[in-house]
Amino acid sequence: MQLIEKYIAAWNETDATARRKLVDEVFAPDATYTDPLAAVTGRDQIDAVIAAAQSQFAGLQFRLAGPVDAHHDIARFTWHLGPRDAEAIAVGFDVAVIADGQISKVHGFLDKVPA
Length: 115
What we know:
This protein has 115 residues and is α+β, with helices and mostly antiparallel strands. It has one domain (2-112): Nuclear Transport Factor 2, Chain: A (Roll). Helix content is 31%, strand content 43%. It has helices spanning 2-12, 16-26, 43-56; strands spanning 27-35, 38-41, 61-64, 69-71, 74-82, 90-99, 102-112. Strands 1, 2, 3, 4, 5, 6 and 7 form a seven-stranded mixed β-sheet that branches. Helix 1 (2-12) runs antiparallel to helix 2 (16-26) and helix 2 crosses helix 3 (43-56). The longest helix has 14 residues, at 43-56. The model has no long low-confidence stretch (mean pLDDT 96).
C-alpha cells in the first residue's frame, strides 16, 4: 500500500523540509498519533515526534517487516527499526485509519524495544 510506504518514508526522511512535505501528504491536518511514548494531534506535533525519534535513533532506519494488511479504511502493519540490513533493535505494530486518502489516526504498539 503506497500510503503506508510513504508513512515509513516520512519516519526515515532526515531532511526537515522533505520530511514535512511527506507528513503533509500522508497525514490529515488533524490526524492523531498514539503509541506508548506519545499521544499527539496535528501535523506539527506528528512531525516533532518523528524528528525526536530520528534524533534518539540516529543512523537507524524504519522498514516494513512484511505485507500491509488493509481493508475498508484500516491498515495494519509491522515495522522494524535498526541498521540497514541488520537485525532490528525495535519492532512495532501500527494500525492506521485512512480517510480521504490520508491517515487520520495511528495506533502504535511496541513489541520489542532497546534495553
